Structure formats: C-alpha cells, structure tokens
Amino acid sequence: MRSLSSYKFTDAFGSTYRAPRAVHSTWRHPFKFTFSDNNERVMMSRLAVVFGGSRGIGRAVSQLLAQRGHRVVVLSRNKETAQVTAASLPGEKHLGLSCDVSKEEDVQRAFETISKTCGTVGYLVNAAGINRDALLLRSKSEDMLSVLHTNLLGSMLTCRGALRSMLSHGGAIVNIGSVVGVKGNSGQCVYSASKAGLEGFTRSLAKEVATRNIRVNLVAPGLIRTDMTAGLEKEDAVRRIPLGCFGEPAEVAHAVLFLLESPYITGQLLLVDGGLQLAL
Asked: Which residue range or ranges hold the Ketoreductase domain (predicted)?
C-alpha cells in the first residue's frame, strides 16, 4: 500500500504538493519559535494588520498583539485615530493608516503602503464592521448595501490583499463575525446576513489556502461592551446572557490571539458570547 506522502495533490492555485511525511512537518507548523533564557518557547515577532484596529474589539486586538511583541499596523477610516492608537501601543515601529474597507482602491493602496513600509504580512484581523439595525421592511437600500459592503465584501477585499503577501511565507487570518450571524435576530436581518456570509467565506477560504500554510478562522462575539452595544437596554440584554454580563473587548482579543497562534486550527468558528447563543 502506498503511503499518504507518496500521493500528489493540486491546490486551488494550481500548485502540486505532497502530503506531509511527519506530524512535525513545517507544512503543519509554519510559525517559527525561539527559546528564552529559561528555555520557554517564545513565538517570533510577526507583522500583524488589524482593520478596524482603533476602536472596540479591534483596538483590544491591536493592544494584545503589541504586548506579545508583534509589529502592528492599525487601520481605520480616520487616519488620525489610527495613528493615535498605533502610537499608544507598547513597542516600536507600529503604523496607523486610513482605509475604508468597502472601497477596493483604499484596500489596495493600504496593502501597497504596508508592503513598502513594513514588509510581509503574518497576521490579518478583520474587525471593521458597522450595523444599521432595522426591520427588513423599514431598511433602506443604501443602508443594506453599506452593511454588506463593509462587513462582508470588505473582509473579502482585505483577505485577498493579505494573501498576496502570505502565499510564500504562510500566515493566519481571523475574521470577526457575530453570534447573530450564527443564530439570527429580529431587527438584524442585514447585519446577520453579512456575518453569516462571513462564516461561509471563512470556511471556504480556509480550504483554498491551507496548502500554503495559511489558516483562516472566525471569532463570533456576543454582547461586548463597545460603542456598537452602547445604546442597548443593559438590564434586558443581560437577562438573556447565561453568564450574566456583557463581555469585554479584551476577552474577544484573547480568543483572536489564540486562533492566530494555534498552528493546527483552521476553518473554525469560535463563539465568545457568555452563552448567549443558548438563549437565542
């Protein structure tokens, strides 16, 4: 019987490859580690690009990645806000850029700047998102398009831009979805659709690029203490959460970091919602 490693496969890019010969192959573990003085394994610094990185969950992700020693590029629609956030991060050489992810030319320009200024992208986090909640019959077409273009198309554009940098070196992508993209919610048809689409996109892309040492996962937060949830009636909302409280952006950031740094996880959805999906 032929061993698995003797078979050849063709990936989505037309490249031929063989299955890994051993479980510790670099095919499985594209990330490099070094060892500290006390012999602890430490992940080497990578370039992390965070869209929507100046506020809420994205800001918490940027802070955590910088604390881990990674160089962070913070992207926001507001250049000044992005630069202020980048300057506040621990470490050096962080960068703040403006980008509207719903505009293809903005995304392309951002990655051109990143390539020239910073080098190869190792991590991508898509935290940019908007909501225009309303019953479908009351939703305006322009609001529907804005939500879909930002939350779904925007992540597609940024992933495509990052892949061009990651193909030769590997990398990891985490998209930020939502619990309502999994369970649905009245008054959030368009927002739910954009996040549900992001789940399908994440799983499909994970299959396309796995052979290139690129992993793609999705974090689906519940009710997190951000500007997006500021207008909710807290007491009513908390009653629906089994753990009895809103989550903090830092708690979602730790889930994002876990997926970025886990070399054998791809195509997965991780709910960070205090059990909210159990009540929906």
From this structure: 46-227
Which residues does residue 214 pair with via DSSP β-bridges, in sequence order?
Answer: 171
Q: Is residue 162 a contact partner of residue 180, using CB atoms and an 8 Å limit?
A: no
* Catalytic annotation, pick one of 7, 17, 191, 264: 191
Beta bridge partners of 219: 176, 270
> Which amino acid makes up residue 84?
V
Residue 230 tokens read as 């500021």
CB 268 within 8 A of CB 182: no
Tokens of 39: 């012999």
Q: What angle do CA 143, 144, 145 make, to 5 degrees?
A: 90
96-135: pLDDT as tens digits: 999 999 999 999 999 999 999 999 999 999 999 999 999 9
191 is catalytic: yes
The three-state secondary structure class of 198 is: helix
Rounded Cα–Cα distance for residues 232 and 238 (Å) = 10
Which residues make Cβ contacts (< 8 Å) with residue 255, sequence separation at least 6? 219, 270, 272
Given this model, what pLDDT does residue 17 score? 53
Q: What is the pLDDT of residues 216-273, one digit of tens each?
A: 999 999 999 988 888 777 788 888 899 999 999 999 999 999 999 999 999 999 999 9
- The CATH homologous superfamily for domain 43-278 is NAD(P)-binding Rossmann-like Domain (3.40.50.720)
Kindly report, residue by residue over 167-198, the tens digit of the pLDDT: 999 999 999 999 999 999 899 999 999 999 99
* Domain spans of the chain, in order of start: 43-278
Distance CA 52, CA 61 (A): 10
